[in-house]
Structures are given as structure tokens and as C-alpha cells.
Amino acid sequence: MPEPVHEETVLHASVYPIAWRLIAAVFYAVSRASLFVIMAMILIGFAISPPLLVRLILAFSLLPGLTAALIRFAFSVDVYIREGMLILHRRGIYRRGLKVEVDRGKTERIAPWRIPLPGPGISFRLSSSDRRGYTLQTSNPEEIMHVIGAEEGTPADGTPHPSVVYAQAKRIAGFSRWHHIFFKFGIFPLLPTIILFRLHQYVAHGGMFGQYYLYGLKPYLSTFAYYWIIVLIYLVLYASLWRALTEGASLLAAYYAPSRAVMVRRWSERGTMLLYYGGVPLLMAMRLL
Predict the structure, then answer these.
(1) What is the pTM (predicted TM-score) of this model?
(2) If you average pLDDT over every residue of the chain, what do you get?
(3) What CATH number should be reported for the domain whose range is 8-17+75-154?
């Protein structure tokens, strides 16, 4: 009886048809760029009421971002490496269960994406006799290219493409893990929310539980939810500014100082955390005092 073949899981990725990659990239770009437009409108002095602000965020940031994420999930794959062969096993809703094996010797052309949207990735084509091509979004393009062949146009000194350097630095020194995001936008916003809500209760109703005693639990909780949503939106807008600077610095380092890309990313992330967690209490103190 033959021994079972063991496969080593490398990462999760998404394999797009070209058109769907462009659609996902547009939705992703709109979801991020809209935050700057909305923030600029607020800073310029446009009269944006809280209900309008919520609708703007939902329509131009949350829904496009969610759409891009759903497209990525639809074309998601599990990536395995086995004896120099790349194995793509679809787990998304598009052609679920389909398995594709890519032999290193049959890869004719491979190139990383010049613009990492909706994320870092690579495109590769099999031999002329096969004529199949793949557009693969992955957080680890360097590992994939190592398996199926060197990237197109690699310099003589072996320096990888800037988008590959950018992805590597983001993977090594980034702070995008789910528990950090949950604390950043789930737990931390409760601090300014409680302060502002408590201040509102004392000013409008004479005590911390004044609205509860006067009108009941539902209006009391509705007011707290209102403050939490507004605070969360402003924190997302505030964080997007520093996130853009971090990503911009990382891209510049990947292009002009690839050997320092990880260091630049690491210190940019630390600076962003300091400006976010330290800047929010400082801005609130300046506003209230």
C-alpha cells in the first residue's frame, strides 16, 4: 500500500481573473481614498451632520471595502508546496474544490504586480503549449516566486522587485493581526466614548444615569451607541491619515532603500501606534480643557 503524500501549507491567497482583480482593486482604492476626502471635507468646514457622516462612511468606505473583501474570498485558494511544485486548491465560492498544479519547469513568465492593489501579488503564465495564466494575490510573493521560478527582469545583483520588498516588509514588521485591529477599533474607542457620553449625561440630564431614570434603558443605550459610532468613525478617519503615511514611507523605502525596508516599516508602525494611542487622549484633552 503506497504511503500518503504529505503537503506543506504555505499560505492563503486569491487567484483572480484579470477583470475581477481590476474590479477588486478599484473598490479597495475607493474605500481607502474616500476616507481622505471625507476628512478633508470636515477640516475645510463642510457642514456634515452625524447622520450624513455615517451614510458617507457606509456608502464610500465600508461597502466598497466589504465588496473587495468578498471578491477576494470568492477567489481564495489554499497554497501548497510539494517537491518543487505549486498546488493551488480553491476554497472560495468560485469553482470550489478545483485543484491546479503548477510545475516549476512549465512556468514561462512570472512578474510581481507593479501596483500592490488590492494587495501584493504576482502574475505568471505557463508554457506556450499550456497558455494558462494566473493572477495571484498573496502576502508572500517571494515564497511563491522561489517555488515556480525567478521573477521577470530580476537585476543581476538579485534585488527583488520593490513590490516584493514592500510585501516582505509588511509581513515581517506589520501590525495587521486581528487582535490588534480588534483592540484598536473595538476596545480603545470605548475610552473616549465613555468620557464623552458621561459628559453628555451630566450636562443634559444632571447625572451619569439621568437619561436612564427619566426615559428608560432603550434611549440611554441608544445615546451611548450614537456616541460610540461617531467616535469610531472619527478614529478611523484619524488612523487613516497615519496609515497612509506608513504605507507611503514603506513603498518609498522598498523602491529606494530595499535593504532598509523592514526597518522603515517597523519604525513607521511604531510611530503610527504612538500617534494614534497617544494622540487621541491629547486631542480630547485639548478639546475639553
Answers:
(1) 0.85
(2) 84
(3) 2.30.29.30
